[in-house]
Amino acid sequence: MNKILSVAKAEYLIAVRSKAFIIGIILMPVLMGGGLLVQIFFGNQVDKADRKVAIVDRSGFLYPILEDVNATRETEVVFEEDENGVKRQVRPHFRLELFEESEDTSKTGITLSKRVRKGDLFAFLIIDEAILDPDQISDESDHTLAYHTKTPTFRELPNWLRNTIHQAVLTRRFENANLDRDLVRNLSKRVNLTSLGLVRVSEDGKVEKAKRDNELVTFGIPFACMMLIFLLIMMTTPSLLNQILEEKMQKISEVLVSSVTPFQLLMGKLIGIVLTALTLSVLYLSGVYAATLQFGVSDLIKPSTYALFFLFLIMALFIYGSIFSAIGAACSEIKDSQSLMTPAMFVVMIPFFCFGPIIQSPTSLFSTLVSLFPPATPTIMMMRVAMPPGPPLWEILLSIVLTAAFTIFSVAAAGKIFRIGILSQGQAPSFGKMIKWVMSK
Amino acid sequence: MIAENTPAVRLNDVTKTYGSHLAVNQLSLTVPKGSIYGFIGPNGSGKTTTIRMILHILLADSGSIEVLGREGTRAANDRIGYLPEERGLYKKMKVMSLLEYYGSLKGMKRSEARLEAQKWLDQLGLSDWSNKKIEALSKGMAQKIQFISTVIAQPELVILDEPFSGLDPVNLESIRTSIIQLRNQGATVIFSTHDMSMAEKMCDSIFMIYKGEKVLDGTLNDIQTEHGRNGIRLQTEGGAAALEGLPGIESLTDLGRFQEVSLSGDHNAFLAELLKKTRVLHFEETRPSLHDIFVRIANPQDEDTEDE
Questions:
Q1: Taking CA A236 as the corner, what is the angle to CA A230 and CA A240, rounded to the nearest 5 degrees?
Q2: Could you give the CA distance from residue A361 to residue A380 in angstroms, rounded to a whole number?
């Protein structure tokens, strides 16, 4: 036992002192938030270069309106005032230019395109004269507003042009039809649907109002639980494969197994990565817990959810750690390991293939079966547990028993493969051979 | 501690096969406590397999193995130090942390391991390197660190697989001295080597395995007596011609200034006959070197060809 702990301690210290670990601490929230942090840090980094656009106004009335709205935009959108009253530019200026067409309107497009190519213009917009006639613009291939640019990915300018012109055109159409626009707007208000939980009776016998569904609870937390377990598996276990393979290729394992048994070595390594992943998750979950306290929503995540999270995480790390260690021990070269790694990665990815249908109907037969399939249980069952109302208790208990049994099996099988594989050289491994090793005495 | 008369290692009819390949066949061997025992044999003859079975890294198919008085003692036994033939070190680790780690794997406390490591680093002239990373070390230095990691836990039985390969003469000498020192402190040392002169110089007993079979086992003296040919190396004024017609010559090799003969009869009678014919400048009884015996056993076909 002491030797297992010696190995675990060494592995843990190597892992947490590595650059990869430090990077991992930062990288994880970035991946988790789907780039949310990047948005926060770099969202303000807008390209504030002026965008000059030529307007060909064949309607005859829209250009002055555009100029007016643009002037308002200059004061309300382009600049932002901070607490000290200092103005700061936050969005680009739109410079509008009215293009006067010659007799031959067919040359307008060519002339303006040349100017865009030269860089004199960012884009140009041709407003069709029939823009006020709704019958003419019902066609989908219609070009009532033709926006030309060589930078179509910049959406702020065309969106602004479309919205501004849309509002102006609507107003003009209502005026032409002698209708009060505000009245129409009032009469055509949308009907809304609110998503609510179930109605309960409180302790004093009163009927409580149902709580509004919280998207964070219904989707955010379950998805985050799944992602966190998945990412912790990905950050720690595949590195075991490389590390063991490297020790084998550099003949370090030969030295190690003269001091510890292969099983002690394997267990030490597994415990090492479990400690590493626990360090990371404690770090993150403390952050999450502190945040929920800060915002007064600490009841969103139940203590039992935290407990199950750690239980499933530890089992998942043992399962996948065993699988990747066994592959590392069985191979003698990196290229051999690649071909064995692919099917293993496929198993790790299972939750990603299934989480959509499971979020849709968490109590379906499919959801139940997938969450009881041990390699997928830690991620999928965790997701279901975090999703209200959660699976029945018997399903949670059954999944824990099945996964625990599978964990023991994985570690034992990996121990067999590890014992034989770690000292064998030059044999190209196959799943058949590995199964034979597992079956051997 | 084991009793004085208990051998450090005893193998009894040990056999090991890999699939259809017979790696070690019915091997019996006794390594007395406190001796330096040399394992020799060509590549692939079964040396490493034998060593790994002694260490319990591999299990024998049949037969019994007793190490330090106990059966089934495994490599993990903290009383054994093992230096494998192919060995590596964590390149990114610092020398002292690595030695502490290896010491702790042998059941030492970190502080104990540190003291012992420092002692060895001083002895092998590496004390300035204790805070350097392994990757900064030369190959010879790394090999000395490997040696220290093997002996740091003061093992009773030290098994070294090719401890001298790749060492320059200076480093080789310091490892050799250290091995002798270990033996003098009471440890039993088993080492395998291709370097026959080193085996001759250092080993109390020598064991040779060839194609899985034991072909030599005993002290150098015994082996040389057993495998010695009745050889004479001589130099006379008359040269090779003076030897013609003398009785008892089985074979004659003319080396130019010297001649080598093998005799069937008494050396002194032959010398008396020779003195009658010419003036003798040099007359020496020769014993085959371990190298010669090794080559003779490992290359029987080649020898047959030479004899023809």
A1: 130
A2: 13
Beta carbons within 8 Å of B54's beta carbon, 6+ residues apart: B9, B11, B65, B67, B159, B190
What gap in Å lies between CA A269 and CA A274, rounded to an integer? 9
Please give the CATH topology (third level) of the domain spanning B229-286: Alpha-Beta Plaits (3.30.70)
Answer yes or no: do B84 and A247 touch at CB < 8 A.
no
Average pLDDT over residues B183-194: 90
In chain A, residues with a C-beta closer than 8 Å to the C-beta of B105 are: 3, 6-7, 256, 259-260
Which CA distances in Å does A68 have to A63, A263, B226, B299? 9, 78, 115, 103
What pLDDT score was predicted for residue A141? 57
What whole-number distance in Å separates Cα of residue A19 and Cα of residue A23? 6
Task: Provide the chain B residues 127-146 that lie in CB contact (below 8 A) with chain A.
Answer: 146
Residue A268 has which token pair?
């030490």
> Topology of domain B9-225, per CATH?
Rossmann fold (3.40.50)
On the question of pLDDT at B4 being above 70, the answer is no
Q: How many CB pairs under 8 A join A and B?
A: 58
Residue A404 burial class via C-beta count within 10 angstroms: exposed 0-12, middle 13-18, buried 19 and up: middle
Q: Which of A2, A6, A257 sits opposite B57 (nearest CB)?
A: A257
Q: Is residue B15 a contact partner of residue B27, using CB atoms and an 8 Å limit?
A: yes
Query: Which residues in chain B touch residue A264, judged by CB atoms under 8 angstroms apart?
Result: 76
Q: Which CATH number fits domain A48-178: 3.40.50, 1.20.120, 3.30.70, 3.40.190?
A: 3.40.190
pLDDT digits (tens, 9 = 90+) for A52-64: 999 999 888 999 9
Backbone torsion region of residue B68, taken as left when φ is above 0, otherwise alpha when ψ lies between -120 and 50, otherwise beta: left
Give every strand in the sheet of B9-18, ordered side by side.
B21-31, B9-18, B62-67, B70-71
- By the CB < 8 Å criterion, does B216 face chain A? no
With beta carbons under 8 A apart, name residues in chain A contacting B146: 255
Q: What residue type is A84 in one-letter code?
A: N
Which 42-81 residues of chain B touch chain A by CB within 8 A? 52, 55, 57, 74-76, 80
Question: What distance in Å separates the CA atoms of residue B10 and residue B33, rounded to the nearest whole number?
Answer: 10
Q: Do A255 and B84 touch (CB under 8 A)?
A: yes
Distance CA A300, CA A224 (A): 13
Pick out chain A residues at pLDDT < 50: none
What is d(CA A78, CA A98) in angstroms, rounded to the nearest whole number?
A: 21
CA distances from B268 to A228, B265, B280, B282 (A): 91, 9, 13, 14
The residue of chain A nearest to residue B79, with distances taken between CA atoms, is: A259
Residue B217's pLDDT band, with cuts at 50, 70 and 90, is confident
The two three-digit tokens of residue A117, written as one number: 């190519």
Task: Look at residues B244, B254, B253, B250 and name the one whose alpha carbon lies nearest to residue B230.
Answer: B250
Query: Nearest CB to A257: which of B75, B88, B107?
Result: B75
Average pLDDT along chain B: 84
The domain limits of chain A are 2-36+215-439, 48-178
Q: Read off φ and ψ for residue B241, nearest 5 degrees.
A: -60, -35
Strands B188-192 and B157-161 come out as: parallel
Q: What is the pTM of this model?
A: 0.72
The Cα–Cα gap between A167 and A170 comes to 5
Instruction: Please provide residue B127's backbone torsions phi and psi, each rounded to the nearest 5 degrees.
Output: -65, -25
Helix (H, G, I), strand (E, B) or coil at B159: strand
Report cis status (omega within 30 of 0) of the bond before A389: yes
Q: Which residues of chain A have a CB within 8 Å of the CB of B91?
A: 250
| Cα-based distances in Å from B25 to B30, B38, B46, B211, B214 | 16, 19, 9, 9, 8
Q: Is the ipTM of this complex over 0.85?
A: no
Q: How many C-beta atoms surround the C-beta of residue A105 within 10 A?
A: 11
